[in-house]
Design goal:
By secondary structure, this protein is of the alpha+beta class. It has helices at 25-37, 50-63, 123-129, 163-173, 181-189, 191-211; strands spanning 7-9, 69-75, 86-87, 93-103, 106-112, 121-122, 131-133, 136-141, 145-147, 159-160. The protein has a domain at 7-161: C8orf32 fold. Helix content is 33%, strand content 21%. The protein has a six-stranded mixed sheet. A two-stranded antiparallel sheet has the order 3-7. A two-stranded antiparallel ribbon has the order 9-10. It is globular.
């Protein structure tokens, strides 16, 4: 039988986050609004920078002690798990932050991704919304994972967060992928922009660490 959905949850690659305490739905809305309007992020950059933005967002949420994970979605053809199955925008994969949100007696995972949605979405709805044709696979990973090794996608082989990943994330915020030939050349000419966005990011991160979840008044995240 054909799947009823464009996307399927993959238990093999996903991790278990049972027992995590959820946020309120209004908190997820406010976090989305903060991210969408924050000048650190250029959400219109559609190619090659989703892992950089997801890492930058994750570091900010870590500073504010906001629970979250990273949600990944991949086309079946990219995973070599079928002849068809692809994402929109010619993406092989996409990643964004997912927040645990309380829903009665259960916790729902809501993705906050201003690059692809107009508000927080349930993980399966988010994955389906960026799937061009069936089917894709989505799964949840610890926020400390930055990216996966090429052509060796398995559960425990992912590259973890470290200083080099931080530099990649800062470069990605201004549209530089230093793993490409063009990106390596851009590093030479955009040293000032990289330094500026890094300093601005550290300022926002420091303030979120000092003020907590929604600032000293527990509401209203503010920008740099």
């Amino acid at each position: 039988m054909l799947p009823l959905s464009l996307t399927l949850f993959n238990t093999e690659l996903s991790e278990d986050f049972g027992g995590i305490k959820g946020l309120e739905g209004c908190d997820a809305d406010e976090i989305y609004s903060f991210l969408k309007t924050n000048s650190l992020f250029n959400w219109r950059l559609n190619h090659n920078f989703c892992e950089a933005r997801a890492e930058a967002v994750s570091l900010l949420l870590d500073a504010a002690k906001i629970p979250h994970v990273k949600c990944w979605v991949m086309g079946a053809a990219f995973l070599k798990w079928g002849y068809v199955g692809a994402l929109k925008n010619n993406w092989n994969y996409h990643v964004a932050i997912a927040l645990p949100v309380e829903n009665g007696l259960q916790v729902d995972w809501m993705v906050v991704d201003p690059s692809a949605a107009n508000g927080p979405l349930l993980v399966e709805d988010w994955a389906a919304s960026i799937t061009l044709y069936s089917h894709s696979y989505y799964f949840l990973k610890d926020s400390g994972y930055y990216i996966f090794p090429g052509n060796q996608l398995f559960k425990k082989g992912w590259h973890k967060r470290r200083q080099r990943n931080f530099r990649w994330a800062m470069q990605g915020l201004i549209g530089i992928s230093s793993l490409s030939y063009i990106g390596k050349a851009m590093l030479t000419f955009k040293k000032r922009q990289i330094r500026e966005v890094t300093l601005k990011f550290m300022k926002v991160r420091g303030r979120m660490g000092d003020e907590g979840l929604f600032g000293q008044n527990h509401r209203g995240l503010t920008h740099a």
